Amino acid sequence: MKEFKRYTVTSALPYANGPVHIGHLAGVYIPADIYVRYLRLKGKDVVFIGGSDEHGVPITIKARNEGVSPQDVVDKYHTIIKKSFEELGISFDIYSRTTSIIHHKTASDFFRKLYLDGKFVEKTSEQYYDVEAQQFLADRYIKGTCPHCSNEDAYGDQCEKCGTTLSPLDLINPRSALSGNQPILKETKHWYLPLEQYEPFLKKWILEDHKEWKANVYGQCKSWLDSGLQPRAVSRDLDWGVPVPVEGADGKVLYVWFDAPIGYISNTIEWAENTGNDWRKYWQDEEAKLVHFIGKDNIVFHCIIFPAMLKAHGSYILPENVPGNEFLNLENDKISTSRNWAVWLHEYLVEFPGKQDVLRYVLAANMPETKDNDFTWKDFQTRNNSELVAILGNFINRTAILTQKYYGGKVPALGTLTSFDQETLAEMAQYKDKVEKALETYHFREALKEAMNLARLGNKYLADTEPWILVKTDALRVETIMNISLQITANLSIVFEPFMPFTAEKIRTLLNIDTLGWEQLGKMDLVKAGHSVGTPFLLFDKIEDAEIEAQVNKLLNAKQANQNKVQVNQSKEVISFDDFSKLDIRTGTILEAERVPKTKKLLKLLIDTGIDKRTVVSGISEFYNPEDIIGKKVSILVNLAPREIKGIESHGMILMAENTKGELAFISCDKEFNNGSEIR
C-alpha cells in the first residue's frame, strides 16, 4: 500500500436550502470526521474541507416562495449548518461556501481553462422560454400534466405523484411557474463536457485500478460505465450562480453540478491563504491522498463526472477512494425534508444538550455503509443506556471511584502480574491493529464495535478480579488491578477520540492527562504511578422514556400535519348530487360548552339547531376555550347517526375548516340567519 505524505479529505457540500439531518450525518459527516480525527492522532498532515453548496434552481425557488433573495436563503442556512457542525464537533479545517469571491474566481478559471483547451462541445437546443418573465425556464420552473398518471402539477424533471423522471418536453399543457403562461420553445446555446471521450480512461481507472472501492460504489460506477456515457451540459440559463466567463454568455451560469465540486478546491485555497499553507500540495502533488466522503446520491458526480473534469484540466490529482454510504431511514420510513420526517441536527442540539457524543455514537453504530439502515428513537435510548452508560461509563466511573477511595486519587504502583493480568494486557494491545485495520478500510461500524469491546474488556477485568472484595485480604494485588484498570481507561481516551471527541476529552480530564497519540494505543504505561487523577464524575446519563416519547410524538405530529396538508391540497373522491343532498346541514348556536374530563381535545356542547337542542361532542378544545364560544354561530350536520364518545351520546357534527398546520376554525354564515336554516 502506497504511503502518502499528506491527506486531502472532503465531505459533500450540504445544499444551503435547509438544515442538515441525521441522514446527512450518518451518510457523510460522521464517517469523514472519524477518519480525519484518526489521521490527526497518527500525526498525519491532513486538511479537512467542507462548505455549503449555495447555487442552483431549488434555492431560487425557495427564495421566490418566501419573497426573499437567494442570498438571503443561503445566508440563513449556511449559518445554521456551520454552527450545527461546530457544536457536534465536526472538525473541518475550513467550512466555507460557493458564493465566496474565491470560489467564483476558482470556478471561473477552471471553466476558462477547459474552454480555451477545447475540452467543451457547444450545442444549440430548444428550451422552454417565458415571454412575460423574459427568461429561459429551468426544469423546476415548468409545470404541466404528467403523461403517465395525469397529475396536473408535475414538474419538468419529475412527477412527484408517481415518481417518474421527466423532461420538460414530456409534459402535457406545460406552463411557467413564474407567470402561469404557456412557455414557448426558443433556441439557446450551452457548453457540454463530452463524458463519452473519458469513458476508456474511467473504465481502466475505476474498474481495473480501484477494485478495492466499496462494493456499492464500484457497482454503481460499473453500471453507469456499462450503459455508456453521454455529453453533459456545464452551463444553464439562470441568474443565480457563477457567470459563464466567456463572451456571449450573458444570462448563463455554471451548472451547479460543475460548480459545486470545484468548491473543494476553492475552499482549500481559502484555507491556505488564511493559514500560510500551499494549497497545491494538497491538490496537485502525487504525494497527497484525496478522499471524498459522500452519500450514494453523489457517487456518480464524485467517481465519474468530477474525475473527468480533473482529468480534462490536467493539473489535479484524482481521488484515491470515494467511500460513499447508502441512506439512513427514520423509524422504518425514508427521511423526507418536504414531509418534515427527519431529526434535524440544530434541533437535537437544543433538545439534548451535552449529548453530542450520544448522537455521534448511535449514528456511527448504525452507519449505512453497504445498505440502507434505520434509526429509531428506541434504539437511540437503548444504546445510550445499555452501552454508553452500562459499559463504557460504568467501567470508567468504577475505576475512578475506587482509585479515589483506596488511593486518594493517585495512581497505585504496578506489582507482580498474574497470568490473568498478562492475558488482559495482551488482549488490550491487540485493539490498536483491529481498530486501525477497520478505519483504514472505511469500516467505521466495525472500528466502533472494537473500541467498545475494549471497554467490555475493562468491565470484565474488574468484575473478575473484584478489587472491592480483595482489598480486605490482598492490598498489593488490588494496587496492580487498579493500575491496569487505569491503563485501560487511558487507552479508551485514545480509541474513542475519533468517534466521541467530547467523551475522550472528559476521560482525559478525569485522568488529568494530555491528548495521547495513536501510536500509544495498546500500551500499559500511559499513566505513571503516583500521578494524581481528577475527581470522579459520570460520563453519561440515562435517557428516560418520556424524552423518547416526546421525540416520537414530534415525528407523528409532523406526519399528521403533512397528511392534513395533502388533504387540503387534494380533493376527495367525486360524489353524486344525490349523495350530497342526503346531508342535512343547518345553522345553529352554541348554548353551553364544557371540557370532557380526562381528555385533551374534547368539548361537550349544547347546540340550538332550530329543530331541537342537542348535545354534540367535538374535538376542538386545543383551539377554543369553552367560555369563549358560548353564543357562537356554527354549521352542524344534524342527520348524522348518534355516537357514544367517552360515555356521552353525541348527536351531530360541527363543520370545521382545517389548515395545513392542523388548526381548526368554525364555518359560519356571513349574515345573521335563524337557527335551523339549511346549508345547501
Q: What is the β-strand count?
A: 25
How large is the radius of gyration? 32 Å
Please tell me the overall pLDDT: 93
**Given the structure, what is the number of helices?**
19
Would you mind describing this structure in some detail?
The chain is α+β, with helices and mostly antiparallel strands. The protein folds into three domains: 255 residues, Rossmann fold; 195 residues, Isoleucyl-tRNA Synthetase, Domain 1 (Orthogonal Bundle), CATH 1.10.730; 100 residues, OB fold (Dihydrolipoamide Acetyltransferase, E2P), CATH 2.40.50. It is 42% helix and 17% strand. The strands form eight sheets. Strands 16, 17, 18, 19, 22 and 25 form a six-stranded antiparallel sheet that branches. It has a four-stranded parallel sheet with strand order 3-2-1-13, sandwiched between helices. Strand 20 and strand 21 form a beta hairpin. Helix 5 runs antiparallel to helix 6. The N and C termini lie far apart (81 Å). 40% of the residues are buried. The mean pLDDT is 93.
Task: Give the arrangement of secondary structure elements.
Layout: E1 6-11, H1 22-41, E2 45-52, H2 57-66, H3 70-88, E3 94-97, H4 101-116, E4 121-130, E5 135-136, E6 142-145, E7 154-155, E8 172-176, E9 184-193, H5 199-208, H6 215-227, E10 232-233, E11 235-237, E12 252-254, H7 256-275, H8 280-283, E13 288-293, H9 299-313, E14 328-330, H10 345-351, H11 356-365, E15 373-375, H12 377-407, H13 419-440, H14 444-465, H15 467-470, H16 475-495, H17 501-511, H18 545-569, H19 577-581, E16 585-595, E17 603-608, E18 613-618, E19 633-637, E20 643-645, E21 648-650, E22 653-654, E23 656-658, E24 664-666, E25 678-679
Parallel strand pairs: 1-2, 1-13, 2-3, 14-15
Antiparallel strand pairs: 4-5, 4-9, 6-7, 6-8, 9-10, 11-12, 16-17, 16-19, 16-25, 17-18, 19-22, 20-21, 23-24
Helix pairs in contact: 2-3, 4-7, 5-6, 6-9, 12-14, 12-16, 13-14, 13-16, 14-16, 16-17
